[in-house]
Amino acid sequence: MSENDTGAAPSAAPKHFLEQWIEDDVAAGRTGGKVVTRFPPEPNGYLHIGHAKAICLDFGMAEKFGGECHLRLDDTNPTKESDEFAENIKEDIRWLGFDWGEHFYSAADYFDTMYEIAERLVQTGRAYVCFLSQEEWKKHRGIPTEPGIPSPWRDTPPEENLARLRDMKAGKYKDGECCLRAKIDMASPNIHFRDPVLYRINRLPHYHLGTKWCIYPMYDFAHPIEDALEGVTHSMCTLEFEVHRPLYDWVVDRMDEMGMLVERGGVKIRPHQREFSRLGISYTVMSKRKLAELVEKGLVSGWDDPRMPTLCGLRRRGYPARAVRAFCEGVGITKFISTTDVGILESAVRDELNKSAPRRMAVLDPVKLVIENMAPGETHECDAVNNPEDPAAGTRKVRFGRELWVERADFMKDPPKKFHRLSPGREVRLKYACLFTCTGFSEDENGNVTEIRGTWDPASLGGNAPDGHAVRGTIHWADAATALALPVRLYDRLFSVENPDADPDRDFKELLNPESRKDATALCEPALAAAVPADGAVQFERLGYFFPDPIDSKPGAPVFNRTATLRDSWAKIAKGG
RNA sequence: UGCCUCUUGGUGUAACGGUAGCACAACUGACUCUGGAUCAGUUUGUCCAGGUUCGAAUCCUGGAGAGGCAACCA
Prior knowledge:
This protein is an alpha/beta fold and about 575 residues long. Helix content is about 25%, strand content about 20%. The strands form 7 sheets. Strands 12-25-26-27-23-24-13 form a 7-stranded mixed β-sheet, covered by helices on one side. Strands 21-18-19-20-14-17-22 form a 7-stranded mixed β-sheet, with no helix packed on it. The structure holds one RNA strand of 74 nucleotides.
């Protein structure tokens, strides 16, 4: 799926600092002829749009430099990992349009090697088994401003450590009774150098390896080993791992000493880590914990609720994968902490859907319109354009008769001058059908309009004014005799404030937008019965983009999710006065 | 009162010592059988103070502000 098919010179696009970094390494011959990146999710949750940014970066850089990107499940902690998460992760990445080819790996693939490295570190006096409790260790470790105190187990002879490590592996100790620590520097200003844990005991079964192991490597130990073993050249992650980098390099150094770095093209491949800023988007939250809380408390319908920033949620909402990718390209890669306006995402979605979505007519808040100079039972057909942005999409026939449904908001009893829609004495165009002049209306005792009356100009069938005079307003409609009532879900932003994380003392759940989902029934032109998820979102003319819900739709009976509204400049005029 | 990182319009970013540009948003106008789309145009910015330089968003010094690090999570 090439993005550079426009003929534009690739060198013209500005390079972000990571692309520059890779380019320099390639030029210096450090990659052995192949750039290798990796996307390493832990299968303990669903991917969200923040992950999409990383996926686009990891796969995108590999593609740009003609290399490969490995999908590697970082399953080093059996506590919350499962195949369900693993499968969803794969599906989401494929949906985005990326392909890892043969390069699917799992941290668990390397457990034997990792253990072997651990034993060698013990044998060379670079690691020891520590029996300090977590509370005791917390005191020993110290705080960033003060050096730590060495563990009493720090100088245990290697042979004893080796025996204890083997006992750990053999299950002779209880969970948490001891751990394997690297012996580095208890006085380092970098906490991660103060004898970090390499292995801990955990008897929960691993989702793939079952009870084969009762000890599991920590991320800081496992990640550089995985990268090195796979010949990864460029390991990109988010900013919070920046302080872990010296430890990453320490592990790679040890592997180098052990002669374990892979060679490619006569070059020893040393993986390097660099960090970039994670994606933040306004009016939503991105933390796995908070998203999980929304799901668990039933505040959304699930991980794939169309209001969720998860990839499965966006997909169910009707966001095209291309739009998500275009958005990720657009936000760029930097080290600044930032929050991207959700409007930019929505803009990417509209931009994509405007080009691709077929147009249909549906009325969300209906009021009856009667064409008084048309006989009951009289019907006409008109040609409707399927997509003005794509002539190849052709036209379709739409039927109409004496009674139609039109949008309540398209009528005003006493309108301001700039209102170009229905009101007594005014003429509008009924899209694709004819010109219509409003002559009167009825209302109930509360002043709610119940019926709009008027006359049509039969000579304008097809929408053209016979004398060529200009008609300012065009409104959409549905034929009352044939309209289909279909359920729609009107989605809006999940939170009512820009930054739900802003105040740590305020429960973010109180900031949910109570209007983020409104259910309604749309009166639709009959063609809409055939809408299916595989065809993507359709545009309800003048209203927005709507996508058949993949779960709740039945054949011939779609349930529509509103993906995005159309820009509405009348709303701005009306609001501004 | 430790270490590391960052600071460019409202928001996200570009400019690698040489005209501060782009996208989104906003605002004008044109066009339009979607008050959509499209097209043209406008408004808004280098955190502060010094220094180096013919010339600084960029280099140096100091300050201010923001974020990260003290899980046997990743």
